[in-house]
Structure formats: C-alpha cells, structure tokens
Amino acid sequence: MAAKKDHVAIIGAGLSGALVAAGLLQRGYQVDVFDKSRGTGGRLASARFGEGSMDLGAPGFSSAQRNKLLALADGLREHLQPWQVQYADFINSTNLSTLTRHVSVPRNSALTRALLQGAQLHTSTRVGEVVRLDGGSWVLKSDGGEVLGEYTQVVVAVPAPQAVPLLTACPDLARQAAAVRMTPLWVMLVQLEQAPERLQSLDWLEGGHPVLGRIVRDGAKPGRSGQHWFIQASDIWSEGHVDSSPEQVRDELLQALESFTEQPVKVVASRAHRWLYAQAGVPTGNLKSMNGLHVCGDWTCTAEPGEQGLDAACLSAARILQNLD
After folding, report:
1. Which residues of 92-130 are buried (b: 16+ CB within 10 A; e: fewer)?
2. What is the mean pLDDT of residues 116-123?
3. 160 within 8 A of 282, measured Cβ to Cβ
4. Closest by Cα among 112, 48, 120 to 80
5. CB atoms near residue 268 (< 10 Å)
6. Helix (H/G/I), strand (E/B), else coil: 287
7. Angle CA(148)–CA(15)–CA(233) in degrees, nearest 5?
8. Less CB within 10 Å around the terminal CB: N or C of the chain?
9. What are the tens digits of pLDDT across the range 165-202?
10. Structure letter (DSSP) for residue 136
11. DSSP state of 134
12. What DSSP string describes 238-269?
C-alpha cells in the first residue's frame, strides 16, 4: 500500500485535530482522521442526555476565542451563535453582569463535525502504533496490529499520555510528551425539576468555591430549553477525587449544589463524567515536528498568560498548518 502524495493522517478528532484537518483540506491535502470514540469533539464533545443531548465539555467560547476559531476556519461563522449570559461568581452571586459567550447550535460538538467535512473519518478506531518506513512514509496500525493506511505525514492530536506510545518512532518527541503532566476534571450533567431560587436569574457561575468550579445553565443556550445544568467540579477537588466512582462524585456535587443554593434540589436525571486528561498542568512549550510526524493539542504549546486550553489548541493548530505550508 503506497502513500498518496500529500495524504495526511490525523489521530484525534478533537478541536485541534479538526482545525488542522480543515486547514489541510483547504490546501488540497487528502486527510484521514482517526478517533477511538464513536463521535468527534474531544473535550468539545456532547453526550446523549434524556431525550436529547448536552455539552459535556467546554460550555462556550469568549469573543476572543471565537475570533481565533474564525481566523483558522471562517466557515465556522455560521455555526456559532452569541449567547448573552447572566454571570456571577460564587462569592457574590447577587452581583450580576452580562457577558457574551458563543456556542454552537444545536450543540458544541457540531463544530468539529463541520470542520471534518471532506475528511475520511474513522471513528471507534484506536490507533496503536505509528511506524516509519524506509522510504520516509508512515504506516498506522490499530492496537490489534491491523494496518490502517500509509501516509506521507501524521499529526498526533491526542492528550500527552495517549500520545507517548504513538511517538516511539521519534524518541525525543515521546520523551517530551511523557514529561507533560495532565490533570483531571469531573463534570456532571443534571436535569432539575425546577431551578433553585438562588439560580433563577443566573446562567453562569464560577470562581471561589472549594468544590464547584462552574455552574452553567445549558438549557438557556440558543436553540435549547429546559432545566438542564452543567456542573463542573473545581480543579483541586477533581484531582483529589480522580479515582472516585461516578456515583460518589454525583452525590458530592449535588450536596455541594444544595449547600450553595441553601435548598434541596429535585433531580430528574444526572450523569457524572471524568475527563482524565482535561488540562495540561505544565505544557511542553513549542514542540517541533520531526520527519513528518507532528504533535498537536493544548499541551504542545504555551498560550499567553490568562488564556485557556482552547487558546492553546488554536495556537497549536495554527503552528502545524504553518509547518506544513
């Protein structure tokens, strides 16, 4: 099986991998994308919930983040809608301000699906090995040893611990990936019978709580409805409960919610999810590509102070596209 000219494989269908795929498709490359999950999105994934779905990852984007996305993929403009958010922090939840956030309709995972239009997408496919041939091309093999394809270049766009075994052909890249510390994050999707009084006028709460990192009214996003809430645990609490069961996490987050709202909540449905590799504790800096093997994602480069993982994901995608130009 010979590699076609400008045939690139991307491992990981999260935001950074999807941005690279869209950029390469615009430049005339043939692109295959592999992901171990059933769908796309990575930490922008959505999940089935009740009779519909909810955002399981990042709940929205700032205007600055929206602009970074559009700079890389202007076609996303039609998929992003502004959301005027009633915002407060946990310490002073009565001091409301209005912020603009941007979300994708009908859900945030639609962004990566739009970016991947035109790519050959292989979901539920776990890549186990990336092998360099004598002629300089690359072969991908499944974790069962099946040859998945031969490519001129490969982009590894998965969290650092998952990238390490895929980078053995370039020991220096594997060593740098192994040195990255990534931290977990617990989130919970919950449908309430009604909003607690303290949350009635709020869409977004964050900052200053020992257990709760963020509360977002998912049902208030454009095109959505219902008492659907996204509850994110704090970074420190998540790390301390990395090995807890989803049932224990659910119970403790609901207890924290009731303590904050000072009233019982009536839960219709709930789901706790652990993002094991949610954030890069210490990014590597800027990794250099080697022999047609590239690494991409928020852990591969350092964003500006105050910026978040999405900013670094955009930066890393832009860097990969620049290297391939």
Report:
1. ebeeeeeeebbbbeebbbbbbbbbbeebebbeebebebb
2. 97
3. no
4. 112
5. 13
6. coil
7. 120
8. C
9. 999 999 999 999 999 999 999 999 999 999 999 999 99
10. S
11. T
12. HHHTTTS-HHHHHHHHHHHHHHHHTS---EEE
Q: Determine the length of the chain.
A: 325
Distances (CA, A) of 21 to 212, 237, 301: 35, 35, 18
Residues 302 and 105: their CA atoms lie apart, in Å, by: 30
For 74-107, the pLDDT digits (tens) are 999 999 999 999 999 999 989 999 999 999 998 9
Question: For 262-279, how does the pLDDT look when each residue is reduced to its tens digit (9 = 90+)?
Answer: 999 999 999 999 999 998
When pLDDT is averaged across residues 42-64 and rounded to a whole number, the result is 91
Bond from prior residue into 196 cis (ω within 30 degrees of 0) = no
> Which pLDDT does position 1 carry in this prediction?
47
Q: What is residue 290's DSSP assignment?
A: B
What is the per-residue pLDDT across 264-318, written as a single tens digit (0 to 9) for each?
999 999 999 999 999 887 656 567 788 899 999 999 887 665 556 889 899 999 9
- 50 three-state secondary structure: coil
**Residue 161's CB: how many other CB atoms inside 10 A?**
15
CA proximity to 325, closest of 25, 69, 24, 72: 24
Are 138 and 152 in contact by the 8 Å Cβ rule? The answer is yes
User: Where in the chain are all domains bearing CATH 3.90.660.10?
Assistant: 82-105+182-279
CA torsion angle 239 192 310 90 (round to 10): -70
The class (CATH top level) of 7-52+111-181+281-324 is alpha beta
* Domain at 82-105+182-279: CATH code: 3.90.660.10
> Start-end ranges of CATH 3.50.50.60 in the chain?
7-52+111-181+281-324
